[in-house]
Amino acid sequence: MIESILGAISVLLVFEVLFVDITTRKVYDFIGTTKPHPAKKEECKSYNRERKGVVLFTIISTFIVNVTAYLFLPTTVKMIGASSFMIWSFDVISTAFLLIEFLLICLGVYMVYLLYRILRK
Hints:
By secondary structure, this protein is mostly helical. It has 3 helices and no strands.
């Protein structure tokens, strides 16, 4: 069962990582820009428009990563509950699935952090 799940999600994970990479670049590019003086109305409008776009893109990316991690959580809990810890003779597929789930959770936390940095600016 896990083999078919890993095969099916590999394409999804590739697109997710690409999406996160694009989001990270947009966020750091936006964080690097300076906020224009309030007297410059046109620059303020452009800045606010760009900010809204980056925030929306980051929210969507954060949502996708966290939903994917949440969808894999029940299978992960079942695998942890049914497995035993063995150093030499372990199941590679189950271990890979658990590693992917752990990394997705870490990526979700990182995306929330990026969203926080954007909203704080």
